[in-house]
Amino acid sequence: MLKIIAQKAKMGTTDYYIAKMTAKDLTDNVNFACELPNWKETPYESRIQREIDTQKVIDVIYPLFIQRKDSFWGSMIISVMSGMSERSFISIKEYLKADNTIEDQLMIDDVGIITLSDDANLIVIDGQHRLLAIKLALHGIDGIPKAVLNMSEEMEREMGKIPIDHEIEYEEISVVLVDGSNRKSIQNLEFHLSR
Q1: 16, 23, 142, 133: which is closest to 79 by C-alpha?
Q2: Span 106-128, pLDDT tens digits
Q3: Which of 5, 91, 138, 140 could join 112 in a cystine, given CB atoms 3.0 to 4.6 angstroms apart?
Q4: Read out DSSP for 151-164?
Q5: Phi, psi of 187, rounded to the nearest 5 degrees
Q6: Which pLDDT band, with edges at 50, 70 and 90, does 166 fall under?
Q7: Separation between Cα atoms, residue 162 and residue 150, nearest integer Å
Q8: 108 phi and psi angles, rounded to 5 deg
């Protein structure tokens, strides 16, 4: 069971949650789009934003994450492909069972703890390079899924030289969770991200 403190939000008809996850929770629970069973059949225009440039990860993103403790990244957008309908969201107001002013109640109604089922399938749809850098930092090349390692032997050797850094395990990463079971909203999001 994955529990995340989140703020519930809505844009149009899309419910989403603004949250933070530790680097460890990200690497343990979030996968890459190329790991999906039907990835090869996905139209190119939908895949273009999801393709991973491993050279960019090695040369730019990994060093920034490990060596620059003052760096700041934007939120990763994570699609909850399954398990979202089984989620529970309990507002802080309900969680604390507190008496609050109306203003306080309005502020805390959309802040709570979201719980996703054990079989929830989370896929990064924006931030795949950052996720790969984090997975490399915590697990080395052995922690990278085979679907991601679709690269030259030279690149694989280069990635294999990257040192593991367990100190980053509890770094807090900003994420946005979107219900991926609604394919139309995800396709719209993918369209806007690829522009």
Answers
A1: 16
A2: 666 777 788 888 888 888 888 88
A3: 91
A4: S-HHHHHHHHTSPP
A5: -60, -40
A6: confident
A7: 18
A8: -95, -5
In this prediction, residue 195 carries a pLDDT of 43
Contact yes or no for 19/75 (Cβ under 8 A): no
Beta-strand relationship, 30-32 and 172-179: unpaired
pLDDT tens for 48-87 read 566 778 888 888 888 887 777 677 677 888 888 776 666 6
Q: Whole-angstrom Cα distance, residue 106 to residue 193? A: 31
| Cα-based distances in Å from 41 to 45, 47, 73, 140, 191 | 12, 10, 31, 29, 18
- Nearest-CA neighbor of 73 among 126, 123, 122? 126
- Residue showing tokens 């999801």: 50
The Cβ-side half-sphere exposure at 35, using a 13 Å CA radius, reads: 17
Amino acid identity of residue 191, one-letter, is F
